[in-house]
Amino acid sequence: MGKILAFLLLGIVIGLAAGYLLVSSVTAPSQNKCLYEAGKFSGVPKKGEQVVVVYGFDANYPPFTVMQPNGTPIGFDVDVVNMIAKKYGWKIIYKPWDWSTIVTALEKGDLDIIASGMTITSARSQKIWFSIPYYSYVHQIVARRNDTRSLSKILNSGDYIAVQSGSTADEWADRLLKAGYKFKKLGLGSYTSALKALLDGRASAFITDSAFLGPYLKKNPDIENKVKVLGNLGAPYNYAIATRPQDKWLRDKINAALEELMDNPKWNELLKKWGLG
After folding, report:
1. Is residue 104 classed exposed, middle or buried when 0-12, 13-18 and 19+ CB atoms within 10 A define those classes?
2. 52-134+240-273 has which fold?
3. Measuring CA to CA, which residue among 32, 35, 38 is closest to residue 249?
4. Is CATH 3.30.70.1230 the right assignment for the domain spanning 138-237?
5. What is the pTM of this model?
6. What pLDDT digit, counting tens, does each position of 215-237 carry?
7. Strand partners, 74
8. Most-buried pick from 30, 81, 135, 232 (CB within 10 A)?
């Protein structure tokens, strides 16, 4: 009986040891694994090191980002980025980029941030990560003022509807086509180009967002008299500053600065300056 008990105890000890080794071999490696590899701004920079941030933006998206003829960018988002950079003593390198490939440029490391009316979407969030949101808007479909057709008739006319390629307006056009509406999509390089296509008669409508259209028409009353908003599309969307997923330190610093800025009366002054207030 004593021998049997000893064998049983030995078997239990061996089983527990084997189980521990098996669990350790399975779980230990996962403790060292991260979802993303370390990036340029994953952690705190070395003491005394100059932080240089490459800022990507659309060169023709007023009032958020516009490249002037002398090569200087201006706009609401440019002011916001400059304020964040001033707070931390960062150096900003300004890099205008084609909007249709700007997300890929951020992923590949050609850019470090995007702040240019960058909408938070589920598709983009699978590739890049966003700061806290700082501005809301709605999508709108616009026609010439003298066009008496209803929204439904224009969407089923077989005519061109202009959009900025790679924008959320472009995505809205695709949704409408998928839903069965009968029109042709005219993809262009900017919202201003899409609006011009409408005014020139190359398109019967264009899809835009209120963040662009409202301020633009305020500055151009002659154009305001030539167009009309036929309706809004869907729920409000939000703008945020885009970063690479692994750049947690950079994103945390941006979030802290944005929150501080938005809680300051200067934020409303900034909105008013660019016709957004």
Report:
1. middle
2. D-Maltodextrin-Binding Protein; domain 2 (3.40.190)
3. 38
4. no
5. 0.80
6. 999 999 999 999 999 999 999 99
7. 66
8. 81
